[in-house]
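4.2 Preliminary Data

To establish feasibility before requesting continued support, the project team ran the inverse folding procedure on a target of 405 residues. The structure was first converted into the token representation described in Section 3, and no sequence information of any kind was made available to the design step. The complete token record follows.
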């Protein structure tokens, strides 16, 4: 294949048969190891490869410590049950990943450290199992964004010049490398993969490490896991392509730009500037400007009505304000709007994000109701004692990326 497949021309049955034949041709009687996460990409790869080589496929789930609450056990049970019936090896490597990310703040440094640790461990596992091949679920947006310098996906190697044989001791097979997410879902349905997996929302390869914005700390990660469970349960039936929460240090910087943005918001809503607060966070987040990665600032916008309660305009209106604010201030990559806050200062804020998209190359902000946002926010503050402010991210892609890091 020479490039991403057009969506309208895609035939899931034809693609599956071709890939099964190609995998069988490449591997022959050899064993292969596959990195399973429970996501649709890696699961489809596992299903295709299992059909091609049967028991010669060795499926491994790495418990990095950055999965959701009880996710490792759930994924292993799901993938080992019919119709897949895979034999999964669960490997506990939590300490190694925490050590690898210790002290790192920059999003790209964190992603690269995760990737290096991930492949070192799989290199060790492949040698132990006598495998020369690693199968993985790389899809088109992964290598497009990585090659474009927008953000490093942990599973991209050969496309950016890394030789996995020399560096890690195995060859990589990527059956889905030219597909987009909706095409992968079509293949999953054709292969009769459980709808719990085929329709599952995307989850980043580096897991929650890219949603613990900035430094990774155990308490920060613990709060993120609790908040993630709340958000996913609340929005599971909302029909959005992706929804999640990030936890960010609440430390703000003194910045005159905040005053200028406040005046813009005041004129936009025809609300006194005294009712508007804009805090510029010290933490940075990833965005995209044109085809170039942007690592920029985040602003938290809080507007109060005459009774001092949080003003609740339509989400679409806040998105329009975001366009104006970021047009005047291109150094920003995310605008967050306060939903609930407590007066007592806490070390972290939580930022809920939900999007509507077809291919994840661009995305619109999902129009969540204020009732849902308020309910979610109150639950997060109640469950996470070190979070006092919960915001909603009103930034589309571009200028933001889907994930914060």
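Position-by-position output of the design step:
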């Amino acid at each position: 294949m020479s490039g991403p497949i057009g969506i309208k021309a895609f035939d899931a049955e034809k693609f599956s048969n071709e890939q099964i034949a190609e995998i069988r041709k490449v591997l022959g009687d050899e064993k292969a190891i596959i990195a399973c996460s429970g996501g649709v990409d890696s699961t489809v790869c596992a299903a295709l490869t299992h059909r091609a080589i049967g028991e010669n496929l060795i499926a491994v789930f790495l418990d990095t410590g950055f999965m959701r609450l009880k996710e490792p056990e759930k994924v292993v049970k799901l993938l080992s049950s019919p119709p897949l019936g895979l034999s999964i090896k669960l490997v506990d490597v939590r300490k190694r990943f925490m050590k690898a990310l210790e002290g790192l703040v920059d999003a790209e440094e964190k992603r690269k450290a995760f990737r290096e640790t991930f492949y070192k461990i799989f290199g060790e596992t492949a040698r132990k199992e006598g495998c020369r091949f690693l199968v993985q679920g790389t899809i088109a947006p992964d290598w497009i964004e990585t090659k474009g310098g927008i953000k490093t996906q942990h599973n991209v190697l050969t496309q950016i010049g890394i030789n996995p044989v020399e560096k890690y001791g195995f060859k990589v097979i990527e059956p889905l490398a030219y597909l987009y997410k909706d095409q992968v879902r079509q293949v999953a349905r054709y292969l009769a993969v459980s709808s719990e997996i085929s329709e599952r929302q995307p989850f980043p390869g580096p897991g929650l490490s890219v949603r613990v914005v900035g430094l990774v700390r155990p308490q920060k990660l613990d709060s993120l896991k609790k908040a993630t469970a709340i958000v996913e349960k609340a929005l599971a039936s909302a029909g959005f392509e992706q929804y999640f929460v990030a936890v960010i240090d609440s430390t703000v910087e003194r910045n005159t730009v905040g005053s200028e943005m406040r005046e813009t918001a005041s004129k936009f809503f025809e609300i006194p500037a005294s009712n508007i607060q804009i805090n510029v966070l010290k933490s940075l987040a990833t965005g995209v400007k044109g085809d170039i990665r942007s690592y920029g600032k985040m602003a938290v916008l809080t507007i109060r009505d005459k009774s001092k309660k949080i003003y609740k305009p339509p989400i679409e209106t806040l998105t329009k304000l975001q366009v104006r604010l970021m047009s005047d201030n291109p150094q920003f990559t995310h605008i967050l709007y306060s939903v609930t806050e407590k007066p007592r200062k806490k070390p972290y804020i939580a930022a809920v994000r939900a999007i509507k998209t077809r291919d994840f190359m661009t995305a619109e902000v999902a129009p969540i109701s204020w009732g849902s946002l308020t309910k979610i926010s109150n639950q997060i503050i109640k469950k996470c004692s070190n979070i006092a402010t919960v915001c909603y991210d009103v930034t589309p892609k571009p200028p933001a990326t889907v994930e914060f890091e």
